[in-house]
Design a protein that fits this description.
Blueprint lengths: L10 H9 L3 E4 L2 H16 L4 E3 L13 E5 L6 H12 L3 E6 L5 H5 L2 E4 L19 H22 L3 H4 L8
Helix pairs in contact: 1-5, 2-5
């Protein structure tokens, strides 16, 4: 997969995150869990971040960014959220394996992850089950985005630490 993976495609995501008033993340299943991890890292940088579906998540509006992940690009709840965000003037950035999917078409920015779709059981791109390679690449990609933002932010780990959860 790494020979088809272009991390430079993360630069537009980084720009959208830097410009956003607030960042919202959405994904389902394991993709959603990865984006929750990414949301935590963005919060450590001091950004205002919300996970779609949580009871305390406010309404999205113009100036905000929706980060969405769907390997297939067809997950109905994620596509609906992207449509709503776009209609309300928010930017939409998408991680997917299919740049011609319904989700990708709605996006202002698409990061194509060249992994097998979860329905591909031929093991051509990966011997792993379902969407595992997509989810792993998504985690690495979101960590690269965080690390780049952190480097540009110029803050130390000591400055980020007070934002770490303390009710664990």
């Amino acid at each position: 997969m790494t020979d088809r993976y272009d991390i430079n495609r993360a630069e537009p995501f980084i720009g959208l995150i830097q410009q956003a008033k607030r960042v919202f993340v959405i994904g389902t299943g394991r993709s959603g869990l990865v984006l929750e991890m990414a949301a935590m890292r963005l919060m450590h940088l001091g950004l205002t971040v919300h996970v779609v579906g949580e009871s305390t998540t406010p309404a999205i509006r113009s100036g905000d960014l929706l980060l969405a992940a769907s390997g297939s690009g067809t997950t109905s709840s994620v596509v609906r959220a992207a449509k709503t965000a776009s209609r309300l003037g928010a930017k939409v950035a998408v991680y997917t394996t299919d740049e011609s999917s319904a989700l990708a078409i709605l996006a202002d920015c698409v990061f194509l992850i060249p992994a097998a779709k979860k329905t591909d059981r031929r093991a051509v791109l990966s011997k792993q089950y379902a969407g595992s390679l997509f989810e792993q690449a998504l985690l690495i990609t979101t960590e690269v985005v965080f690390q780049t933002l952190w480097d540009r932010h110029g803050s130390s780990a000591d400055e980020l630490w007070p934002r770490h959860a303390n009710l664990e």
